[in-house]
Amino acid sequence: MAAVAAQMASELKAGAIVTDVGSVKGCVLKAVGPELPDNVHLIPGHPVAGTEQSGPAAGFASLFDDRWCILTPPKDADEIAVASLEAFWTALGSRVEIMEAEHHDLVLAITSHVPHLIAYNIVGTANDMEAVTQSEVIKYSAGGFRDFTRIAASDPTMWRDVFLNNKDAVLEMLGRFSEDLTALQRAIRWGDGDALFNLFSHTRDIRRRIIDAGQDDAEADFGRTHED
Amino acid sequence: MAAVAAQMASELKAGAIVTDVGSVKGCVLKAVGPELPDNVHLIPGHPVAGTEQSGPAAGFASLFDDRWCILTPPKDADEIAVASLEAFWTALGSRVEIMEAEHHDLVLAITSHVPHLIAYNIVGTANDMEAVTQSEVIKYSAGGFRDFTRIAASDPTMWRDVFLNNKDAVLEMLGRFSEDLTALQRAIRWGDGDALFNLFSHTRDIRRRIIDAGQDDAEADFGRTHED
C-alpha cells in the first residue's frame, strides 16, 4: 500500500479523499500517511461484509446492505471529508461507524481475525489425522465442521497479511481464547457438567442478539448460493 | 437412556429393533445393551444432520436428504435387522454407513464435537472482553464471528452430555487442535508468512471437496431461514 501511495501521490488533486477497504487499519495509517501530500485527506475504511469468495466477480447487489462500514480517520481529519466518505458508504447501503484505528484492530481481532485463525486451524488439524480419513471428514462434515471450512476457504494471501499486520491484537485475543479453552478442557476432563452447561447457555443469547440486530447470515448466504 | 431401556424392556416384542439418534455411540451400547432382553436387536444410530435448533418443530422436509446416517451395530448383530434399519434411513433420504461405535466417536469428535467446543469457546471469550463491548461484537460479527454463534446456539443440555460421554476422543482431538494452534501462534509472533500461507492454501481444497460431495450447507440454510 505504501508503494501504491507513493506512485499516485503526485497525481492527486488538492482536497482529494484517499481511502481503502483493508481489514487492518493501524498499519494503513502508518504506511500510507507519510507517502501522501499534505493537501489530500487520508481516511482508511473497512466495510465488514463479504463471503469467502474474493475479487470483483464475488460481489453481489446486496453485499453492503445493512452491513457496517468502519472509518478510521486520523485525529486531525477534515470533518467535511469524513462526512463525504460516510455519505458514499451510506449510499451503497452500509451503516457507518467512526472509531480509532487502534480500537478497530482490536475489535476485528476478536470478531474476525481470531475466528478465521481457529477455522483454518481446525481444518488443518482434521486434514492431518491418521485414525480418521479425509473422506470421513468430508462425509460427516454436516455435524458442524463444514461451517468452519467455509471461512477456512478465504483468500490465503489476504489472510496471511492480516495476521502479519495485526499481530499484537491477534496474539492478545488468541491468548484469551486459549486460556478459556484450557478451562473447558479441564471441565471435560473432570466431568464438570455444570461448568459446561453454564457456558453453553450463556453463548445462546449472543446469537439471538445478532439475529435481532439484522447481522445474521441470511443475505450473505443468498449471495453465496448464487456464487457456488 | 439406560433408565428408559430398563422401563421398556419387558414390553418389547421378540425380534424388535431398538435404535437411537444420539451423537455419541459407544456409551449407548454400554448403557442400553445390558438393559434389553436377548431377543431384541440393539442397533445404535446417528443421523449427521440438523441445525442449531432443537425439538420436533425444528424439523423440515429435506432434513435428511443426502445426509449420512451412521449405524453402529455390535459385532454379533443380526444382518437382517441391520438391513431393515438401513432401509428405514434410506427411505428418509439418508445415505447409510456402518462402522464400529468407537470409530464413530473418534470421527465425530473431530467433525462435530471439537468444532462445537471451539465455537462455544470463542463466543464465551468474546463475551468477556473489557476493551471490546458486546454491542461491538454483535455489530461487526459479519467478519466471521457470526458463523460461530450459530453453532454456539445449540442445545446446552445435549452438548453438555456429548462432552461428558465422549470425553476421551474429544480430549485427544482437542490436544491436537491446541498443538496446531500453538504452532500458528508462533508463526504469527515470528512473522513467518510462508507457514501461514501454506496452511491457508491447503485448507481451501477441503471446502471444495465438501461442496463436490454435496455436503455444503445450502439445504440446511434453507431450512434454517424458514425457522428464523
Could you please describe the fold and organization of this structure?
The structure is a homodimer of 228-residue chains. With 228 residues, chain A is mainly alpha-helical. Chain A has two domains: 2-99, NAD(P)-binding Rossmann-like Domain (Rossmann fold); 103-227, 6-phosphogluconate dehydrogenase C-terminal like domain (6-phosphogluconate dehydrogenase C-terminal fold, Orthogonal Bundle), CATH 1.10.3660.10. The first copy, chain A, is 57% helix and 7% strand. Chain A has ten helices and five strands; from the N terminus they run H-E-H-E-E-E-H-E-H-H-H-H-H-H-H. Chain A has helices at residues 2-8, 26-32, 79-91, 101-127, 134-139, 145-151, 156-165, 167-189, 193-212, 218-227, and strands spanning 17-18, 41-42, 45-47, 68-71, 95-98. In chain A, the strands form two sheets. In chain A, strands 3-4-5 form a three-stranded mixed beta sheet, covered by helices on one side. In chain A, strands 1-2 form a two-stranded parallel sheet. In chain A, helix 4 (101-127) crosses helix 8. Chain A is elongated, with a radius of gyration of 21 Å. The two termini of chain A are 31 Å apart. At the A-B interface, helix 4, helix 5, helix 6, helix 7 and helix 8 of A face helix 4, helix 5, helix 6, helix 7 and helix 8 of B.
